[in-house]
Amino acid sequence: MVFDVVSASVLLVIGEDEERLHLRRALSGEGWRVIPAGTGAQARQMADRQSFEVAVVDNRLPDERGFQVISSVQKPGVSTVALLRDEDTMDRIVGIELGADYYMRSPVNPRELVARVKQILRKRERGADDESPGRLLVGDLEIDPDIVEVRKGGKEVQLSPREFELLYTLAKSPGRVFPRSSLLRQVWGEEEYIDERTVNVYVQRLRAKLGDKLIETVRGFGYRLVKPG
After folding, report:
1. Residue 165 φ/ψ, nearest 5 degrees
2. What is the torsional sign of CA 37, 39, 45, 48?
3. CB 47 within 8 A of CB 69
4. What is the rounded distance in angstroms from the CA atom of residue 78 to the CA atom of residue 99?
5. Which CATH code fits 136-225?
6. Which of 40, 78, 192, 215 has the smallest set of CB atoms within 10 Å of its CB?
7. What pTM value is reported for the model?
8. Which pLDDT band holds residue 100 (cuts at 50, 70, 90)?
9. What is the mean pLDDT of residues 3-8?
């Protein structure tokens, strides 16, 4: 049976009434069926009784932390979106261990949430999942070419198309040294006249966004993505 994005259902677990109402209206406006819950206990009840494709869970609930709810509402085929505040760093780490799929800053902009849910549902519609052959996991780094997304430690990192292609090329073979000339051919293509120093610039950009120790310079040869120990 073909999956229909328009008829999808979203479990929305938000403790604050007004915020839950605003987000519910935004999601419902896309034609999705929204299952609202204001507490962790309500979310579990809804999860037991109804089916849904996406669960959006705020980390601040009246009765418990959202990451505890995520582990309870997970089902096969359900993607989870955790809404975290800046100070919820430890909860984000625990949430990763419990299998949260996406993270967004709370309070979330309704349009941004709609865009994220659309992205998740379109990926599902294409038949792609988190175990697709193209998806790469290197340590705490996740690279998904199906939706052109990079996450480090569960947090999404915004990259330009070139930055993404360079990172993906390196990540396909962790520990392998790539000469600059090889990276130019694979990422930029031979039809473009670009100095090899361009690779250096883009590597510096990736280091600035992902950390200095992720990509190692091998003097006289090129670069390699550090293989997790």
Report:
1. -65, -40
2. positive
3. no
4. 11
5. 1.10.10.10
6. 192
7. 0.56
8. low
9. 70
State yes or no: pLDDT of 217 exceeds 60.
yes
Residue written as tokens 């975290």? 84
| Furthest-apart CA atoms within the chain: distance in Å | 62
At residue 2, the pLDDT reads: 45
Domain locations in the chain? Answer: 9-125, 136-225
Place domain 9-125 in its CATH homologous superfamily.
Answer: Response regulator (3.40.50.2300)
Report how far residue 143's alpha carbon sits from residue 133's, in angstroms, rounded to the nearest whole number.
11
The separation between CA 44 and the C-alpha centre of its own chain, rounded to angstroms, equals 24
Residue with structure tokens 């007004």?
A: 18
Give per-residue burial for 134-156: e unless 16+ CB within 10 Å, then b.
ebbebeebbbbbeeebbbbebee
Q: Measured between alpha carbons, how far is 208 from 174 in angstroms, rounded to an integer?
A: 19
Residue 15 dihedral angles phi and psi, to the nearest 5°: -75, -35
The token pair at 149 is: 């997304």
